[in-house]
Design goal:
Oligomer: single chain
Shape: globular
Radius of gyration: 20 Å
Structural class: alpha/beta
Order of helices and strands: EEHEEHEEEEEEEEHEEHEHEEEHE
Distance between the termini: 46 Å
Largest sheet: 6 strands, antiparallel
Number of helices: 6
Helix content: 10-25%
Number of strands: 19
Length: 342
């Protein structure tokens, strides 16, 4: 009879709370933590959504045989792991990028009603929903919800662009994809008061309590959505605001959106500076040609205490992570969410 081998795994939340688990060899850390009743953020349980992200700080742990991970090479090199597909190779410890209270807000399933659907750019739709009584939840700016596409068995994930203070209304910015099932529904069938089956909130990408540290936000396309929510929550807080630089980019001028909304926030927040870029010209006045990653640090080195938020396509996130680290930003201060087309 083969003896079961277990390893001591320590999970440390950002508020200093730690828990030690016994994780069997060949088992994933997430399931062991959930079985122990820990408030761990998770969603897909298959290594594809990055919700259960953690950083390996001591010991060895690797993706289990037969499993795959959506992490970028730079993220793995920085010690990041997805707990749902990660097994311990010995005693080890992980740092979680959220406090022990976040996971207490369990995802719920219910319905929301369409309040408005408007095309705000050539390939972007703004969708405003209102939560039904059976789907009340709280969330942190940066988290996302899932929507079941009407008439199908498919779901799509979208970051929330509004703040918890605006509940029960939530705003989404959705990229329109040729042939996409959600895109076709939005363009051909979305109507006010339509009921949608939704679930959430999900995600470990959200605004952290970083005090007065300077913030850098790099957004590609509809990756602007969580940044808008974060900026609005910062504005609503009392006290002096930290300096914020938002670098927002789209492929072309036809893809730009929310210009007036961004300008309004610049008036509200003198500490907010904005750079807008398009990959290719022609570019409107005040818009640079290039990508939003290159625009960061163009005026000089960044403060070593800078905290960064990245949201957009995987290639942009990978480039931004490397660029920020070259500018002196600590890997642990870089928080990212990849948008992958379905």
């Amino acid at each position: 009879m083969t003896e079961l081998v277990t390893h001591r795994v320590t999970l440390a939340f950002s508020d200093g709370i730690e828990h030690e688990l016994a994780v069997a060899s060949g088992s994933n850390v997430l399931e062991a933590g959930l079985a122990a009743g820990l408030p761990l953020l998770h969603q897909c349980r298959s290594g594809s959504c990055s919700t259960c992200l953690a950083t390996l700080v001591e010991g060895e742990a690797a993706t289990l045989p037969g499993c795959s991970s959506s992490l970028l090479a730079s993220e793995r090199a920085a010690g990041q792991r997805l707990l749902c597909v990660t097994g311990a190779l010995g005693d080890c410890s992980f740092a979680l990028p959220y406090d022990s209270k976040v996971g207490e807000n369990r995802a719920v399933e219910g319905h929301a009603f369409v309040n408005a659907a408007e095309r705000v750019a050539a390939d972007v739709m703004r969708l405003e929903l209102e939560l039904a009584e059976d789907c009340w939840f709280d969330f942190r700016p940066g988290q996302f919800i899932q929507i079941k596409v009407p008439g199908t068995d498919q779901t799509r994930s979208y970051s929330i662009a509004s703040t918890p203070a605006e509940l029960p209304k939530i705003e989404l910015l959705i990229r329109l994809l040729p042939g996409g099932v959600m895109s076709e529904w939005l363009l051909g069938h979305a109507a006010v008061d339509t009921a949608l089956a939704i679930s959430g909130p999900y995600g470990a990408f959200f605004l952290q309590d970083s005090g007065k540290a300077p913030l850098v936000m790099i957004a590609g396309g509809t990756g602007l959505a969580p940044m808008m929510a974060m900026i609005d929550v910062i504005r609503a807080k009392s006290g002096r605001k930290p300096p914020i630089h938002l670098s927002f980019g789209c492929q072309s001028a036809e893809g730009l959106f929310h210009g007036e909304a961004i300008d309004l926030r610049r008036l509200w927040l003198p500490a907010l500076t904005v750079t807008t870029s398009v990959d290719r010209g022609p570019a409107p006045d005040g818009v640079r040609i290039g990508n939003p990653v290159e625009a960061v640090g163009a005026d000089g080195p960044l403060d070593p205490a800078t905290v960064a938020y990245l949201c957009g396509p995987p290639g942009m996130v990978e480039a931004a992570r490397g660029h920020l680290m070259s500018l002196g930003v600590e890997p642990g201060n870089i928080h990212a969410e990849q948008f992958v087309a379905s």
